[in-house]
Amino acid sequence: MRKPETIERLYLDFDGFFASVEQQCDKRLRDRPIGVVPFAGTDRTAVIACSKEAKARGVKNIMKIQDAKKICPDLILVPQKPELYRRAHNALLCEIETIISIDAAKSIDELTCILDDSGRRDPELLSSRIKSHIRQMIGPYITCSIGFAANRHLAKMACKAGKDATKRTGNYGNGLAIWHPHELTDHLFQVQLEDVPAVGRNMAKRLYKHNIYTTEALYNLQPKHMRRIWNSVTGERLWYALHGYDIQAQPQKRGMFGHGRVLPPEARTIHGAYEISRLLLTKAARRLRRENYYADGLSLWLSIRDGSSFHNMRLATVNDDQATLTALRQLWDKVIKEYPRGLTIFRVSVTLYDLSPANARQIDLLNNDDTTRQKWEKASTAIDDLNSRYSKTIVSLGEWKPPAGGHVGGKISYVRIPSPEDFW
Question: Which residue from 79, 212, 246, 421 puts its CA 20 to 30 A from 41's CA?
Fold first, then answer.
């Protein structure tokens, strides 16, 4: 396995991405504390992103709105605009590509690049060129932090360290950290154990049980020992990454298609949550078909006042709307039976799982691939084609009435970049 002798990777993380995009696009929000929220009109959800001005006042991401308002009374709440963030993401990548080729977009606000000779020789100049170009071509309110190191994993850690350092000095939006291999441990050992990617809070608790409390102690383990602690090859791969080896990300296998949504107050009944879950599942089934998969299972998860409620059921290896929506109705019938007096539902998620590629579809020997199912598949394909032609949902099974705030299936998570079709 190759161990680079110099920096070879760049990792870039946009600062407060959703909030900074809002400020760049709306002059009224600039230089003011803002919090991006799921939808307007309620204080019962959380701030999903906040501006640097809000962070300076103590507001944090995923903080309850009521708590955020207590410490920052003049906080401006801005409903999320996922389609705007997707377009901003694409525009930023296009501009960065004029400076350096992007190896991979790791999320909506993070990307990684492989350095060429000039980038390895002068990373400060490369960082300055990228930030200057974004400022000139996009605007000054979208800033980024950049980390350089021998591999992607270390570059990501360097990026976060640079971001944290600029926050402490009040120079927000100018993060830069360069971890040359010959001085790696000087930087690495200053990182908290919980902040190491692939560790996190839960794994840190397991490491504590092995008397490992610092990143230095983790670094000094043997690779096989780390493999035993993780109970998988992930631990051994992390050892090599922390020691500066050229570790490539493993190809990810598609495991599920799903969507979730925080419910507006008027939709927190069984009927309201069902209607939104129906739209979410329709979007998930469309993605299933676009990527040529079938599903063998469906799950429904509800966040309720006393915890959560979970139901799932097997499917007959299907991908059409009629089959998935029929199964969803059966799951909701179980919910009604379990809660005959009704309940308050705060969030709903639907997931299609146990996937099979379309070219490897296998159904139960006792389940005939009947003509009715084939007709429904053709109907779903025809609906997809028609919606694609007009770039919006004009045909659907059942009423198509998105809830307040919209974003049915188009919500941006930090780990998946939605396609334009997700917003139809």
Answer: 421
